[in-house]
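Bit of a strange request maybe. I'm writing a small parser for structure token strings and I need a real example to test against, not something I typed by hand. Could someone generate the tokens for this chain?
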Amino acid sequence: MLESYAGDYMSKCKELVLSFSMADGVLKLTTEGQPGTRMVPITQTMFRYEGAEAWIEFKKDAAGRITGAVHTHDRNDLECERVPPYEPGPEILQEYQGKYLSRELETFYTLELRDSTLVVLIRNTRPVKLDALEADL
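Reply from user aminoacidic:
Good idea to test on real output. This should exercise your parser:
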């Protein structure tokens, strides 16, 4: 049953992506730049983040499919929608390759395709792997 919660959930304002996966029979949360966090069950659909005063409640439709979740932290609720898996091929990713300028930060970013993964290169930093969540609109 825990496997049904695995997947990506994006806040409606698209500021946060929560990724849940199964490891050794345990549901875990990973967010960008953070280590995995074990999820502690409270009910069949509600879980507490281990080591944090926050929790998530998964939402189901009438057929019992997981459609989203509500992340709660510091008495603030953040509605999240389940994002269907999206894995664009190299032919789509190569369209994003190039050099981009942030005038505000006065910094160039280079996007490069490496082994069918898009990475961002910023001067004096390690390459950062980019994950596609959904097609551009």
